[in-house]
Every structure is written in structure tokens, then in C-alpha cells.
TrEMBL record:
<dbReference type="GO" id="GO:0008199">
    <property type="term" value="F:ferric iron binding"/>
</dbReference>
<dbReference type="InterPro" id="IPR001519">
    <property type="entry name" value="Ferritin"/>
</dbReference>
<dbReference type="Pfam" id="PF00210">
    <property type="entry name" value="Ferritin"/>
</dbReference>
<dbReference type="GO" id="GO:0006879">
    <property type="term" value="P:intracellular iron ion homeostasis"/>
</dbReference>
<dbReference type="GO" id="GO:0005737">
    <property type="term" value="C:cytoplasm"/>
</dbReference>
<protein>
    <recommendedName>
        <fullName>Ferritin</fullName>
        <ecNumber>1.16.3.2</ecNumber>
    </recommendedName>
</protein>
<dbReference type="InterPro" id="IPR041719">
    <property type="entry name" value="Ferritin_prok"/>
</dbReference>
<keyword id="KW-0409">Iron storage</keyword>
<dbReference type="InterPro" id="IPR008331">
    <property type="entry name" value="Ferritin_DPS_dom"/>
</dbReference>
<feature type="region of interest" description="Disordered">
    <location>
        <begin position="158"/>
        <end position="180"/>
    </location>
</feature>
<dbReference type="GO" id="GO:0008198">
    <property type="term" value="F:ferrous iron binding"/>
</dbReference>
<feature type="binding site">
    <location>
        <position position="98"/>
    </location>
    <ligand>
        <name>Fe cation</name>
    </ligand>
</feature>
<keyword id="KW-0408">Iron</keyword>
<dbReference type="InterPro" id="IPR009078">
    <property type="entry name" value="Ferritin-like_SF"/>
</dbReference>
<comment type="function">
    <text>Iron-storage protein.</text>
</comment>
<dbReference type="InterPro" id="IPR009040">
    <property type="entry name" value="Ferritin-like_diiron"/>
</dbReference>
<dbReference type="GO" id="GO:0006826">
    <property type="term" value="P:iron ion transport"/>
</dbReference>
Length: 180
């Protein structure tokens, strides 16, 4: 296609990340169901909202690829991982997930720089900033979990942790269907 303004390999790399974001949306959706099934309804809402955010990220890549004359290729997304064994491993898993995703974004930034593809470099800065926020958000969840775990009266602490997480600031709202 002659009007394509990104390289073939950049098109592929952006498509890969678009699908990563879609996979993350699914992963957070699955964690939301797991949390809800374990009576952490606040944490479930936190994950459901986060799933919506990841879906918005997926769509940003989709639109960018199309805007640059490339083609967004919607492909199968891998199934989410097995359910976590407990809340602590759930939170650590999410933390690792976000750190891994930041690395993937940085690799794309490196590629854009190497190719002197400044529009893509510029597009990716939004994601660099977003990952700073996401890491901070999940790190806060880790801190809250650590605090809640310290006391002997764990149940009350986990109750307030759960309530707090429902109100943690996120851009996306709950899917409309959840509020029906
Ligand atoms: Fe994302
Ligand atoms: Fe994320």
C-alpha cells in the first residue's frame, strides 16, 4: 500500500501491542470475576474499570495504525492465566503484568526512535505517561494490601481495603452493563 506512513515492521509491532492491550483487558476482566467470586466486590469493580481502560488502550493503537495508513489486524487473544490462589498473589501478578507492559511500550519507543518515526514516537509518549500512572495505581494497591495484612484484625482491614479500591481514581467507568 503506497500511502502507508509506517514501516511494515512498525505496523506489525503496533499490531502486536494492540493485541497485548486486548489480552490485558481480558486478563483484568477475569481477575474481576475472580475477585467478585471471592467477595471482594470493591476490588472486582477496580479490575472491571481497569479492563475498560485496557480496552481503550487497544482502541488507541487500532486508530493510530489506521490513521497512518496501516491495517489494524484483529486476531485471537490468549486466554487469561489461571485464577490467583489468593489476593496477595493476585496483586503481585498484576504488578508484574504492568511492569512487563511498560517494558513493551519502551521497546516500541526504542523502535520508533531507531526508525526516526517521529509521529509514532510522539503517539507513544501518551502510553509512557499512562504506564507511570498505572504503575503508581497498582503500587498503591500493593501498599494498601501490605498495611491491611499487618494487623491481627485482618477481616476489617481487608473490608476497608476492598471499599477503598472501588473508589480508586481511574479514567474508565464501570461497563454500563454492570450498573443495570
Ligand atoms: Fe494498557
Ligand atoms: Fe495496564
Amino acid at each position: 500500500m503506497s500511502d502507508k506512513r509506517i514501516s511494515d515492521s512498525m505496523e506489525q509491532a503496533l499490531n502486536d501491542q494492540m493485541n497485548n492491550e486486548a489480552a490485558q483487558a481480558q486478563a483484568y476482566l477475569a481477575l474481576g470475576v475472580w475477585a467478585d467470586s471471592n467477595n471482594y466486590s470493591g476490588i472486582a469493580d477496580f479490575f472491571y474499570k481497569h479492563s475498560e481502560e485496557e480496552r481503550q488502550h487497544m482502541f488507541k493503537f487500532l486508530e493510530y495504525i489506521q490513521t497512518r495508513g496501516g491495517e489494524a489486524k484483529i486476531s485471537a487473544i490468549p486466554a487469561p492465566r489461571d485464577n490467583p490462589v489468593d489476593l496477595e498473589s493476585c496483586i503481585e501478578d498484576v504488578w508484574q503484568h504492568e511492569l512487563d507492559n511498560s517494558k513493551k511500550i519502551y521497546a516500541l519507543v526504542d523502535k520508533a526512535f531507531d526508525e526516526r518515526d517521529w509521529p509514532t514516537f510522539n503517539f507513544l509518549q501518551w502510553f509512557v505517561k499512562e504506564q507511570i500512572e498505572e504503575e503508581a495505581l497498582i503500587d498503591e494497591l500493593r501498599d494498601k494490601f501490605a498495611l491491611a495484612s499487618e494487623s491481627k484484625d485482618n477481616n476489617a482491614n481487608f473490608y476497608s481495603l476492598d471499599r477503598d479500591m472501588a473508589n480508586a481514581p481511574q479514567e474508565a467507568e464501570l461497563p454500563r452493563e454492570k450498573n443495570l
